[in-house]
Amino acid sequence: MALLRRSFLAGAAAFAAAPALAQISKLTGAEWAAIGQYGDKAAPLTVFEKDGALHVDGAVLTLARLTGQGAGRYAIAGGGELVLEKGAVRLNGARLAFHDFGAEAQDAIHAAVRADPVALRQRALAATPPVETQTHRPADLVDLTTVDPRIKLDIRYAGSNNFMGIPLYERAAAYLQRPAAEALGRAQAALAAKGYGLLIHDAYRPWFVTWMFWEATPPEYHAFVASPGKGSRHNRGCAVDLTLYDLKTGKVVDMPSRYDEFSPRAYADFVGGTTKQRAARAVLRQAMEAQGFEVYTEEWWHFEHKDWREYGIGTQTFTELAQGR
To answer: pLDDT, tens digit, for every residue of 101-115?
Structure first.
C-alpha cells in the first residue's frame, strides 16, 4: 500500500493485557464518535481512546493525550490544541476532514471492477499455475468445521460481501493442511476458556481464485492482492483469515478495523481504535502465535502457519474437496 506504516509494538504491548477487555467508559458520546482518522491517507491523524481518555497520533504527534478544555476543545500533551467538529477536527487551527479510508478504497475498487463472475471463473480454471520444482508434502486439507464445533464460518468470498463485490468461491467452506488445522483447534480450545470462538473468513484458497483476484482487480489496486505468479500462503492451505466471536451471545467481537480493510487501521500494531478493540486483537494474536502461527503485519486477521513452505500451490476446488477428490 502507498500508505505510511508506523510501528507501535512497544505501545501495543501495553494494550494487550486481558483486563483491558472491560471497556473503560469515561468518554462522552461525541468523544466516542470522534475516534477515527483525519486528513491525508498517506499520513493521517489518528484519534483514539486509551485508558478512558482521547489520544492523538500522527502529524508529528506521538501517542499524545488530550485534556478537555470544554466546548469540544482539547489541550494536547506536549503543546497544541485539537478541536472537535462535525466530520472533522482542527489541529492547531488547520481543519482535517474525517475519512474512513478502508471504505473509500473498497468503494473505488467496487466501482472499477468489471467482471462476470461465471465467465471469470471459467477463464481462471483454464489458467496454468506456476511450476514448482521443490519437493513438498502431499496435501492433506482438513475441513475446519470438523475440527471443533465452536469454529464457525463467514466465508466472504462465497458471496458479494467482500472487497471486490462479487462471489469468487462456488460454496462456503474452509480448509487447512492438517498440522495447521490441528494447531487452529488448539487455539480454539485455549480461546474457549476465555469465552471466545473463532470465526473463519478465509483459509485454503485454490490458486485459480488468486488468479481471479488479480484479473478482476484494476491494475492501480494490484498492491492489495496477491500475484498469481508466485502463489500465496492461502494457496498452500497454511493461511487463515479469522476473528473472534462471543461464545455466549454469538456476537462478533469488535476489532480496530473491519475484515479485509485496506487502510492503516488493519495493521496488526495499529495504535488506534479503543482499548477494548486492541485488547481483543491481542487475545486473538496471542492464542494464534502460541500454536505456531504468525500474524501478517498489515492484516490483524491474517495468520500463517509455520509449515507453509512444506506445501505446494493447491488447485482443488471446494466442490472437489467435498467430494473427496
So the answer is: 999 999 988 888 877
Cα distance between residue 6 and residue 111, in whole Å: 29
Q: How confident is the model at residue 118 (pLDDT cuts 50, 70, 90)?
A: confident
C-beta of residue 271 within 8 angstroms of C-beta of residue 10: no
Q: How far apart are CA 53 and CA 140, in angstroms?
A: 49
Other beta carbons within 10 Å of 137: 13
pLDDT class for 12, splitting at 50, 70, 90?
very low
Measured CA to CA, the distance from residue 301 to residue 280 in angstroms comes to 12
- For residue 158, CA distances in Å to 109, 172, 202, 224, 282 come to 18, 5, 10, 19, 28
Contact 183, 293 (CB under 8 A): yes
Distance CA 254, CA 272 (A): 13
Catalytic residues: 299
What is the pTM for the complete model shown?
0.89
| Kind and range of the H or E run holding 215 | helix 207-216
216 grid coordinates: 478482476
Q: What is the pLDDT of residue 24?
A: 53
129-133 own/partner pairs: CB under 8 Å, 24+ apart: 129/207, 129/208, 129/228, 129/231, 129/313, 129/315, 130/228, 130/229, 130/230, 130/231, 130/313, 132/231, 132/312, 132/313
Q: Which helix (H) or strand (E) holds 164?
A: none
Average pLDDT over the chain reads: 91
Q: In this structure, what C-alpha cell is assigned to residue 176?
A: 487447512
Residue 56 and residue 77 in contact, taking contact as beta carbons nearer than 8 Å: no
Would the pLDDT of 51 be above 60?
A: yes
Q: How far apart are CA 10 and CA 8, in angstroms?
A: 6
Cα separation, 317 vs 41, in Å, equals 38
For position 1, what pLDDT does the model report? 40
* pLDDT tens column, 205-260: 999 999 998 988 888 888 778 899 989 999 999 999 999 999 999 999 999 999 99
